[in-house]
């Protein structure tokens, strides 16, 4: 819930696990990592999200999709998958959606590390016009 300038997040749920049957363990883990990173953009998971929100509302839980979450290690989370996921959410769902990042290593040092991020309108425009690269 967005109240004034504060976004209140009370519930979250993960996407279903990504599985890829194969015999090559190195390429399997790499493929699974890529599929998991792209999960927020997948059509099946969009349907899954809508169903979960519908079920939450059926039991009188105030449920609105305000974004997605991911974990990080020592603040290392900005990559193309993160940018593509957030761009997708802000473009397709709502420009106010956030990426909630939980830094596991910083949290293990004694204080919960959660931060919410959005892409700026200028960045959204640059990304749309392909004026952005990771270099």
Tell me the layout of helices and strands.
Layout: E1 2-3, E2 6-7, H1 25-37, H2 43-58, E3 67-72, H3 80-92, E4 98-103, H4 104-107, E5 114-117, H5 121-128
Parallel strand pairs: 3-4
Antiparallel strand pairs: 1-2, 4-5
Please describe what this structure looks like.
α3 (80-92) links the parallel β3 and β4 (98-103). This protein is 40% helix and 15% strand. The chain has 135 residues and is of the alpha+beta class. It has helices at residues 25-37, 43-58, 80-92, 104-107, 121-128; strands at 2-3, 6-7, 67-72, 98-103, 114-117. The mean pLDDT is 81.
What fraction, in percent, of the residue positions are helical? 40-55%
Q: How far from one another are the termini? A: 36 Å
Proportion of strand residues? 5-15%
Number of helices: 5
Topology, number of strands: 5
Largest sheet: 3 strands, mixed
Structural class: alpha+beta
Helix and strand element order: EEHHEHEHEH
Main features:
globular; single chain; two-stranded antiparallel sheet
Quick structural gist:
40% of the residues lie in helices and 15% in strands. The chain contains 5 helices and 5 strands.
């Amino acid at each position: 819930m967005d109240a004034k300038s504060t976004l209140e997040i009370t519930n979250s749920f993960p996407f279903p696990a990504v599985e890829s049957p194969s015999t090559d363990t190195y390429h399997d883990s790499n493929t699974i990592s890529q599929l998991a990173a792209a999960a927020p953009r997948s059509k099946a998971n969009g349907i899954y999200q809508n169903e979960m929100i519908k079920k939450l509302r059926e039991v009188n839980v105030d449920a609105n999709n305000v974004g997605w979450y991911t974990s990080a290690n020592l603040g290392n989370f900005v990559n193309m998958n993160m940018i593509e996921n957030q761009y997708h959410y802000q473009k397709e769902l709502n420009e106010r959606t956030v990426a909630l990042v939980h830094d596991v290593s910083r949290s293990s040092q004694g204080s919960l590390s959660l931060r919410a991020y959005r892409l700026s309108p200028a960045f959204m425009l640059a990304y749309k016009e392909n004026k952005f690269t990771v270099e």
